[in-house]
Every structure is written in C-alpha cells, then in structure tokens.
Amino acid sequence: MVECFTLSFYFSVLTAFSTVWLFSLVLALAAAFLAQSTLPHPHPQPMQIRIQPFTVHKCVPLTISRGTTATSTNLWLQLEHEGIEGWGEASPFTVGHPQMKSPQRTEAIAQALDAFIPHITGFSPYDYDLIEAQMEAHQLISAARTAIDLAIHDWLGKKAQQPLWKLWGLRRDHLAVTSVTIGINTPAGAHQRLLDWLAVVDAKAIKIKLGSPAGLEADQAMFEAVVAGVPAGAKVSVDANGGWTLAGAIAMSHWLGDRGVTYLEQPLPVGQEADLYKLFKESPLPLFVDESCFNETDIPILADRVHGINIKLMKTGGLTPARRLCETAQAQGLQIMFGCYSDSTLANTAAAHLSAYATHLDLDSHLNLTDDPFRGATLQDGCLIPSDQPGLGVTYEPATPPMDTAYNFAADSIAENTEWLADSLAIPAVESTFTAGTFTAGTLTAGSGEIAPEIPSEPAPAPSPELPPELPSEPSPDLPAEPSPEFPAEPAPEPFPELPPELPPELPPEPSPEIFPEPSPEPPPEIIPAPSPEIDPEIVPEFPSEPFPEAPPEIAPEPPPEILPPASAPEISPGMLPEPSPGFSPRL
Ligand SMILES: [Mg+2]
Q1: Nearest to 536 by CA among 501, 490, 487, 494
Q2: What CA dihedral angle connects 512, 516, 520 and 523, to 10 degrees?
Q3: 374 CA to middle of ligand 1, Å?
Q4: Which of 160-174, 256-270, 371-385, 426-440 bottoms out in mean pLDDT, i.e. has the lowest?
Q5: Over 70: is that where the pLDDT of 347 sits?
C-alpha cells in the first residue's frame, strides 16, 4: 500500500513537472514565433536604390531676399523592388538661418544618402515605419528623407495600381489654384516678368517676392508695377522671405492690406518667431510662415501667432510627414499651403497629390524650367491636377524643349536686370554641386565627384553595377556606409561674364504643347549674377537700411516665449549605426 502511494506521488510530481515543462516549451515557441514575425529580418529580395543627379535651369533666375537661383542640381532616386520602380526627388534648399536644419545643398544630400541607403536595402517598401525609424535614428536630413519617402509612395501606388490621391481618399476636383512667382527685380523687370508668365500660363494667382535689400520703398515700387499687370480676379499674395523688421512688417501689412493682398508669407526672419505674435495682433492680413515651419513639432510654437503654414516636401521629409503636419496644423485651426524650392515636376506632382488639404498652392517651380525631365501633374485652369496614373503618375521625358521663345525676356533683359541686382543689391547667386551614386543591396557601386552632363536617356528598369556611359567611372565596391570620399569640395564659382552656357546641347526642337508654345534653337544663356567669388546662400549681404517713412514707433519688446530647439540626437558615426531591430517603433 505504501509502495503504491509512493509510486503515485512520484508519478504525480513527474506529471506536474512535465506539464510545466510542456507549458514552458509552448510559451517559448510562441514567443519565438511572435519575435520572428516582428523582426525586420532581411527581405529575400532587397530593394535596389539608385540616385542620379540632374540639373535643371530656370527660364528666369529667381531672386528673393537671400539670393538668386539660376540652376539647381537635384537628385532622382529610383527604388526597384519586385519588378516595380518607385521614384523620388531631393532638391537643395536653405532657409537662411545658420542654426536651422539648413542649408541642405546637393552634395550634402547625396552624401547623406550615400551613408544611409545601405541601412534600408534589406527592407521592403511595405516597411515604411521601420524605414522611417531608421531615418530618425540616423538623423537623416529632410531632403534626403523626401527622396526615399516619395519613392516608397510611388512604389506602393504602382503596386496597388492606384494614384496616391485616390488611395488617400482625397479629392482633386476642388483644388486651390497655384500661384506663379515674381522674384525681386526692378519695377520694370518685375512687370515684364509677370507678362511673360501670363504669356505661357493661365495664372489665377500671383505671388510677389518682396523683402528687397534695397528697402521698403523699393518693395512698394515693385509691387505697384506688378499689380498693374495682374489680370482681373487673380489673387495676389506677398512673400518677404524674412526680409523685413517687425516695424517694417507691421507697416507693410497695412499698406498691402489696403491693396487687396490675400496673405503675407514669412514677413520676419526665421528665428524671430517671438515677434510674430506682435505682428499677428497688428496685421490686417493673414500671416503664413514658411522658413519658420519644418514639421509638426513647430506647430505648438506657431499656433497662436500665424494663420497658416507653407508646407514643402523638402522640409518635412516627404509625404507621410507632410500629412502629419497637415493634420496637426488643421487641428490647431491653421490653414495649409504647399510650396516648393527648385523642384522639378516629380516633387511638385507629389505635393499636388496632397493639394486637397490646401487653401493656397504655390507649386510653380517646374513651370519655370527649361529642361525639366519629368512629366506629371498638369496645369488646368490654374490648378495643378495629378493624373489617374498609379503612384505619383510621373514619367521621364527628358526631351523637353527650351522655353526661350516665350521667355525672350530672359535672354534680352535678364542680363540688365541681374546686373542691377548684382550692383545695386549685391544679392549672391545660389549654386550647388553634386555627385552620383548607385546602390544595390546595400553596396555603393558607383560614385563620382564630377558633374555628370546629363541623366541617361531612359530610366534604368533596375539598378545596374554599370555606370551610365557619361558618368566618370570610379567604382568603389565595398563602401556600404561611409560617405564617399570623392565628393568634391565646394567649387569656387566663376565670375558671371565667364560662365559658359550650361543648357544641354541635345534639347529637341519640338515644343511641349502643354506649356511652352514655341521652341527656339537658341537656349537661354546661363546667368548667375555672382558679384563675389564667395557664393554662400546663407550670407545675406548687409545693406544700409533705409528707415521706412511710415513705420510706427518701436513697440516695447515683450519677453519672447521660449522656442524649443529642434530635437537633437547624439552624434552617431556610420560605424556605430544600428542595424534594423525590433526596437524601432512607428512614429504615427
Ligand atoms: Mg516662401
């Protein structure tokens, strides 16, 4: 009897331990399965990512308070996965504040992509949150993020075979009209620029750049000359690009308000957001900020002192953060507008997919290019309309005719005007250099410190280890994460009279039936009014300030609210960059 009891006792204990062991085993297996399912393990088909620089030339150089831009070298990012290719673009820009996330010049963007892309080729385009977490962990600059973000969205739309605006449930039948921009110029030059715009674009809105270093009287004279040619019913807005003082901005807001201006953009320099509150109380015009707003973290500072924000994809880091910014701003009662830098049709079409959010649009940079290689959203009755094509709906068509017939003004008068700009205002030219790199499965297979003369005639269906024939070949097979050492230093610009024409010689004779009515065999000359051998767009030349005659008395300064600095992260060297891990969480 005792033996039977003992056996039963031992059997029960053994059974209990077996049950616990089995239960533990099941738990361990379940945990391993869950962990495996959430790990960002390398995709069996790594993304192939290729970046290709391309230079676009403006029909008419654009001068704002900080400088003049005649050309821009942008980056075309091609992401291939599962036989589908998504495209993105990055363009250089500056907001004129040394401590902001600027300037983002082309070479800096390319170097950032050089170092970063190898860290995400193991993902798939479906892994947006993980890729974005990597971008955040590496503190990738916003223009580089934009190129990746746009390519992923283009890929996803093509995979779903739907345009992005439709996938997001946004409308495109009641979009705001897009404005065309008149840069700082002489009154006569600015007036003529408007007429040239109206000759090729059915503009329903005009944005006038003020904040001239020549002073407020020069701003007023130029404004009056432009509005004299504005068609009836067209809206007029003003962007000072931070070129005014608080007193000047208050005075100009009343002066412009009396003349029917729709809104006033970035009246004060970036970094002076505290004074925006004083201007907000005084201004009869709606105030928008551009340089002062990058992403949704800026909204709490701005919500009580502006009426709206100008969103640019190069500032936000792409479409997903732009949508977050839209919804954050709208939740605070702010209006939305979309703008651009020297973006081609590719990036402006991406922004057009979000146009339904906007009260105002200023997506005109591609309309002022002689050699935009892309086609996408089309201008219809003043509105930039994205197409029904899947993804971004952008095609590569480098055979773009020059616009010099319609813009004879550029060839005939710009030299005189730029001479005035250079001599009277000493406004510097903004230039950028670039390089190229090709990435396949995390390996940099091509990089060049030389300026490529053109992009290939056909977009490559998939990245190839072979360089395009026109690119100088300097293969560096094992450079996954280090910035390319071949990137050139900032080149010293040549004086204006010695600048050679840079238009591609192969521009075809046929005009674009959409925008450019007539071609001309003579390309517009490359004009960069560089008055000084040192070209730095961040440097705003100092001019003898002319007191505005009607400026109100100085308002006693109030203690400025504390402005939180942009979030910073510890410096991470490329060798220390973490690999994809389950620790990265979505930012949504
Ligand atoms: Mg602006």
Answers
A1: 490
A2: -100
A3: 24
A4: 426-440
A5: yes
Looking at 317-378, list the stretches that DSSP marks H as alpha helix, in order from N- to C-terminal side: 319-331, 345-352
**Centroid of chain to Cα 114:** 18
Give the tokens for residue 243.
């070129």
- CA of 144 from ligand 1 middle (Å) equals 20
Cα 205 to averaged position of ligand 1 atoms, centre (Å): 15
What's the 70 CA to ligand 1 centre distance in angstroms?
17
Distance 95 CA to ligand 1 centre (A): 9
pLDDT of residue 564: 39
What average pLDDT does the chain have? 73
Asked if pLDDT for residue 498 goes beyond 50, the answer is: no
How many Å lie between the centroid of ligand 1 and the Cα of residue 211? 11
CA distance 78 to 463: 8
Q: b/e map of 13-38 (b: 16 or more CB within 10 Å)?
A: eeeeeeeeeeeeeeeeeeeeeeeeee
Omega before 103 cis (within 30°)?
A: yes
SS3 for 497-540 is HHCCCCCCCCCCCCCCCCCCCCCCCCCCCCCCCCCCCCCCCCCC
Residue 224 Cα to ligand 1 midpoint, Å, equals: 20
The pLDDT of residue 66: 85
Span from the CA of 442 to the centroid of ligand 1 (angstroms)? 37
Sorted by where each starts, the structural domains of the chain and their CATH numbers stand as 166-425 (3.20.20.120)
Please tell me the distance between residue 454's alpha carbon and the centre of ligand 1 in angstroms.
29
Q: Is the pTM of this model over 0.85?
A: no
Q: What is the pLDDT of residue 398?
A: 86
pLDDT at residue 381, as a whole number: 93
d(CA 141, CA 114): 12
C-alpha of residue 241 to centroid of ligand 1, in Å? 6
**C-beta of residue 79 within 8 angstroms of C-beta of residue 49:** yes
